[in-house]
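Kindly review this protein for my students:
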Amino acid sequence: MSRRLPESPTSPYELADFPISTRLERWHQLSDRDLHVRAIATLKSRGDYDPGRYGDADKYLPLTAGEHVELLVLGESIARSLRDLVHVDRALEAGVTWQEVATATGQDERDARRDYQVWVDDRHDLHQSHPGATSGMTDEQHAQATARAAAR
C-alpha cells in the first residue's frame, strides 16, 4: 500500500521519498482536471459547448491556487526523478568518484548522492509496479546501486 502524498506540498523535496508512480498519478489528476476546465471554458466562450457531447461542466472544478502550486511541485519532482541518472549510475560503476559526479552535474556531493538515491528508488518502484517489464531495477540491482550511493 502506498503512502498518501502530503496535502499542499510547496517543494519537490517534500515528495522525493514518494514513489514516482504515486506522484505521476496525482500530477495526471490535477493536469487533466485543469485541461478539462480550460477546454470547457474555451468551448463555452465560442458557443460550442454541448453538455451531451462534452459532459457535465460542473464536475470539473477549477484548480485552487494551492493546487496550481502542487502541480508545479509535482512536475519539478517528477522531472528531477526522470532526469537520466543512468549515466551517473554507469559512471559510478566505471569508477567515477562522487566528487566528479557532483562537479559534472553542478551540485554539491550530498545533493548528487540524494538525487541518485531517489532515482534508484524510483527505478526500483517502476520495476515493482510493472512485473515482467525490463525497465527499472530488480531488488539486487537496487541493493547494488544503494551501496554505490553510500560509498565514499
In short: The helical segments are 20-46, 51-54, 65-82, 86-93, 98-105, 109-129, 139-150. Residues 17 and 118 are 7 Å apart (CA to CA). The first helix runs from residue 20 to 46.
